[in-house]
Design goal:
The chain is mostly helical. The protein has one domain. The protein is 65% helix and 0% strand. The protein contains 3 helices and no strands. Helix 1 crosses helix 2 and helix 1 packs across helix 3. The radius of gyration is 11 Å and the shape is globular.
Length: 60
């Protein structure tokens, strides 16, 4: 199982593609900012669930 940071980094690689819709793009960008600020552990359960669902959509 991948860590939260690993899932975010994998999705970050998709930011320059057309595979993410506008909402997904913004969500991933906000998650990347949190990783870089060292705040990834402060994600809510809902954010983690959405991250997992988005990651599974593109990498499952």
């Amino acid at each position: 199982m991948l860590s939260t940071t690993q899932m975010i980094r994998r999705l970050e690689g998709m930011l320059d593609s057309r595979d993410l819709n506008d909402w997904e793009q913004g969500f991933v960008e906000s998650l990347v900012q949190r990783v870089e600020a060292g705040q990834v552990t402060s994600l809510t359960e809902k954010q983690i669930d959405r991250l997992q669902a988005l990651h599974d959509k593109h990498f499952a």
